[in-house]
Amino acid sequence: MSEQIRSWLASQREPMLKLLERVVNIDSGSYDKAGVDAVGEVFEEFFVSHGIEVERFARDISGDIFRARIPGPGNAPIVLMGHRDTVFPKGEAARRPFSIKDGRAYGPGVADMKGGLVLNAFVLAAFKKFGGNSAPLVALLTSDEEIGSPQSRSMIEETAQGARAVYNAEPGRANGNVVSRRKGGVFMILDVAGKAAHSGANFEAGHSAIHALAHKTVAIADLTDLALGITLNVGLISGGQSVNTVAPSARGEIDMRYARRVDRDRVISAIERIVATEHVPGTSATLTIKGEFLPLEQSESDARLLAHYQQAALRAGLTLEGESTGGCADSGFTSAVGTPTLCATGPVGGLAHTPEEYLEVESIVPRAIALANAIADQTRSG
Fold this sequence. Notes:
The protein is 36% helix and 24% strand. By secondary structure, the protein is α+β, with helices and mostly antiparallel strands. The strands form 5 sheets. Strands 1-2-6-3-7-16 form a 6-stranded mixed β-sheet, sandwiched between helices. Strands 4-5-18-17 form a 4-stranded antiparallel β-sheet, with helices on one face.
């Protein structure tokens, strides 16, 4: 990588923080389309100001998708990926706006993952300004990752298909590591139908949906296999009409995590058998998949990309490893289409999805330089 790119990125700490402040101070919960779009428009403005081509792809429910690109050798691009949505409700940015204290930046989505989007944007701008990228560069800014990317998945897979590599700028781990393995996740709703009856005067005429859901909850939880990385959690339950009525309906929301794609269908089939079982006579149940992520299993090409990035990071003064996490991300989709993928290449941060979420300010520039090194050397080593 040219010394010009390294020097320029090293000089951009304050502009990076200013851009980060702008986007953190915009509410962008997954269901807040206007807010997610407003964050996208800030990045669109940034790309245009640096002479970078940017396209906007409309979505009817989630925020629109933005895709920026600069040309480079060959047809297979290097993809820099990240999502603009957060888990926080409307008004959160006003309640606790962007701030910096003791070397850490705070605010909703500061690490997960607006910091990563800022990093990607400046790396793209650096190569636009000075050249030297080993392939075309594409920055994909999606809009609904926190709810399973229902309206972004197809474009993620399309963009990744045939790409040279994907770097997903989820936050670097608190210890500085990147993520080389992630679990997949399936998020389901289990609805149980029963029959109402007065619980004192006519108890035997009722069929309790809550009683049936309790049986199914225990049976589903028993599918957990920690040795294989499979967990089942019925994390929300609701139902019933009143305390003195046999429950005519009940609902459970299920979180399934798994480490290997080969286990997904087997476990889902087991859940479906539990759902179909009439644990309480006169009740019935249905299962709906609400959202889904694929696991990042670390293929051989993923492992080579990790080794390549580690060497690039070392030249930026960073020593790091790849690690596993039970959290899901869009990187599972890109790895599943066969594209070498590495996750958590964004700035270092922690405590995501909480009011204490933070980003280590001094990690932004070195992580940007590490990514730029990896891009510049991709043809030779990646």
